[in-house]
Predict the structure.
Amino acid sequence: MSDFLKEYAAYCDIHGRPDRIELMLCDLNAVLRGKWLPGDDEKKLAEGAVRLPLSTYAPNIMGAEVSETGLGIVVGDPDGRIVPIPGTLKPVPWAKGKVAQVQVEMIDPDTGEISNLSARQQLANMVEAFHAKGWHPVLASELEFYLFQPRASDDEARHPSSQPGCAELRPRSTGTHPGYPVRNPLSFRSTGHRHRHVDRRIWPRPVRGEFSPHR
């Protein structure tokens, strides 16, 4: 029995057999793409019999093919074999019915290895190169969010929150990034963190990283 089939059997023992498995492939834009698989087709996935076009790794941000990549219909749009990433099989409690998700990669038919189009694999290769030098990259990310008034229906337009304790949004330009900085504390609720206060700007910022030698 393959490692994935063992993982899947253990999953079913805990959560029950899912109605479907959502196969999630991360493209070069960090957008999750993929397909759905019936919950009783786990052997098909474990055997590498599920396929996607290799061009799925490299669309533009809107999901369209980019001919300049040399992928897609210009070369016949060849398929790669999907393989699950160990340890990523998880339940989807907010979905209707029994649904599981698993992250996947594709095998390049020419090399038999994970495709070098995989952003995850390129990152893993980079981290391995750092480790070989005794370096351990550390990533620090920021949470950016908006506060809106509750809507009566999904068709209603969103409006900024005006409840007491929430900051007033005032247009302002900083450098080359016009945006709406939030200077006053924002009061919000989240699981385990009631009435926490934060100070955030709501325009996108670059991710900050640092590298420190292993000790």
Summary: The chain is about 15% helix and 30% strand. The first helix runs from residue 3 to 15. The domain at 3-127 is CATH 3.10.20.70 (Ubiquitin-like (UB roll)).
